Amino acid sequence: MRTTRPPETLPGLLGDTAARDYSSKLSRFNAFAEPELRQAIASLQLQSGMRVLDAGCGTGEALQWLWEATRPNGEIVGIDLSAAHASAARERAPPGTQVLQTDLSEAPLPPASFDLAWCVNTINHLRDPAQGVRTLIALLRPGGRLALGQSSLLPDMYFAWDARLERLTNEAVRRYYRDRYDVDERRLTAVRSILGLLRGAELQDVTARTFLIERVAPLGPATEAYLLQTIFRDTWSERLRPYLAADDYAQLTRLCDPDLPEFALRRPDFHFLQTFTLVTGRT
Hints:
Layout: H1 23-32, H2 34-42, E1 51-55, H3 61-70, E2 75-80, H4 83-92, E3 98-101, E4 114-120, H5 129-138, E5 140-151, H6 163-181, H7 185-188, H8 194-200, E6 204-216, H9 221-236, H10 246-256, E7 271-282
Helix pairs in contact: 1-9, 2-3
């Protein structure tokens, strides 16, 4: 069975292909949100001996956390479309963990063979999320659970002291994604309906729980690295210039520059909020 996406297949909604590499961004997010992600895994009350799939495992940090929750007899399998992500995940995976570089729809995994499918910040990259959910459900044993996790179902708070600039920046990001990937806001924000995805799949005992990721100044190294590199530079930066008025872009640039006194992450009143929502259901 093939373990890579055939060239004729369309890329994911956000341009994902086997060659796409978000490794540094994923690693920074996992380091930043590790306490809350571990709390979410703990809420599942996994047991030793369970077989767990991490669908869209990225750079593999959660493989370790899932392994710790199911040891000493658990079995963890990770899959990711990106070759770079799968390679990074293999390097940090616990002993005995299998990592496959494959498309979810073509994963060489036997049906009804997992107790839990853990899928975080992945379903929004699929062109057909409902089909992705059905594929994951088919991999679950009777009574197995599907756990869909997604960050930022509510708007993140970056500039507590300037809600206007924060709103304009978020709107600029949406406009950029609309133009970059040719998708409208409804499709970009459809991930907010992950509860509906699981209810639509007729799973039992569907529940939702949202964890608050809250950081205040002074920031730890993992938080500063994530916000500075992944948000301020990778997500905002020059790409937002066409979508903001000149004065607003100049103000945003000053807040994002660590060499300037206005740098947001060094302000004593910096207060950051982000959410992580975990929706689970049972077959």
